[in-house]
């Protein structure tokens, strides 16, 4: 509970004295000038932000604009750090869910109590479907994922239902394939059936894949 008072005592809360009334005109002018200057600086900053955000018409932006060579080069390090963080976080989330599930199963709790829906309701902010992904990926690859250097959690999610997953995860580790490249390479090696072609639009920003 926030116990911060609505306001703090100030000189204005005290009775006026002769010292208060001796406040000079020059002092008042100085203070007013400072306030005006602060207001001008604040207004300028706000205007600059508005100009910055409104100067881009996103409906006219193309992938070529966003992915110009210099931007790609400068962004690579930061994108890599972001992907590593997402990957690490997803493995830890999966571990927690799996351990929680095992604990409840061991206590002979009803099955509904340790379902993906139950965890989703307990923690909030994550769908039962994604809880299931986190749990299943950890259950299958939790003991071995660290042996695939440079391979992100989303690679394992993509390979979750493959009976030859280890082969393609090793390929991703050796060749530096992205998730998209790994899926497409496997698809091509299996005959490239049009109705089985992987769609990159299935891959979400959080690394999850529509399955």
Give descriptors for this structure.
globular, mainly alpha, 0% strand, 211 residues
Can you describe what's shown?
This protein has helices at 18-21, 25-54, 63-66, 69-106, 116-123, 128-141, 153-158, 165-175, 179-189. The chain has nine helices and no strands. It has a domain at 68-202. The chain has 211 residues and is mainly α. It is globular, with a radius of gyration of 29 Å. It is 60% helix and 0% strand. Helix 4 crosses helix 6, helix 5 (116-123) packs across helix 6 and helix 8 packs across helix 9 (179-189).
Number of strands: 0
The Rg value, from CA coordinates, equals 29 Å
Distance between the termini: 43 Å
What is the residue-averaged pLDDT? 75
Strand content: under 5%
Using the alpha-carbon principal axes, give the shape: globular
Number of helices: 9
Regarding quaternary structure, how should these chains be classified? single chain
Helix content range of the residues, please? Answer: 55-70%
Which runs of at least 5 residues are low in confidence (pLDDT < 50)? 1-40, 50-54
Task: Outline the biggest β-sheet.
Answer: none
How are the elements arranged and paired?
Elements: H1 18-21, H2 25-54, H3 63-66, H4 69-106, H5 116-123, H6 128-141, H7 153-158, H8 165-175, H9 179-189
Helix pairs in contact: 4-6, 5-6, 8-9
